[in-house]
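Predict structure. Chain length: 223.
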Amino acid sequence: MINLEKEIGYEFKDKSLLNLALTHSSYANETGDQSNCNERLEFLGDSVLSVIVSDYIYKRFDTPEGELTKLRASLVCEEALFDFAKEINLGDYIKLGKGEYNNGGNKRPSILSDAFEALLAAMYLDGGIEPVRKLVLRFVKEDLVDTNKISFIDYKTQLQEIIQKNPEEKIEYVLVDEQGPDHNKVFTVSIELNSQSIATGTGKSKKAAAQAAAHEALKLMGL
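Prediction complete.
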């Protein structure tokens, strides 16, 4: 617990809130107290996260509501929260039932992203919104480092919508390279269509690299 508090840069006054945020329903079910899990905190954390991200991008980007909505969605989606959770090694601290743990639950994107939202809610209840804002913007600013443009286009969503028209097709984003020091890394992501690489992209974050790869794929398709 102490190590996690160091990772997030916040020390809880009420440790029971932190403990609750880290308690998955599978663990609560095994211990016979199904109400003692992080699902209610997850609900609150989702709203707190949305307010913080909405406020930040509203003030930074002078763009129409539709584009702000797309940008916010890309910053608070499961994939993004999973990356944030991994950066603070959240999976090392989540309390899971034996079956869930044995099935790799502490590495599952849905469990980690939900726990990250629960953690934000616990911080909010314990110390108000400012500690949460500090933590969230630490990650959001990294994700936006390559988005210094007035208009944000979610190329991944555009590509997915095209691929979904052909149910037999399957795309996957694969991290193929990672270079540079921790404070200035450059990532390269490849898009594989039915296990064949069709485009690559680079960026200061894995998310930015994936967007660049999707952009390249769309260009190759003439779109």
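Summary: The longest helix spans residues 39-60.
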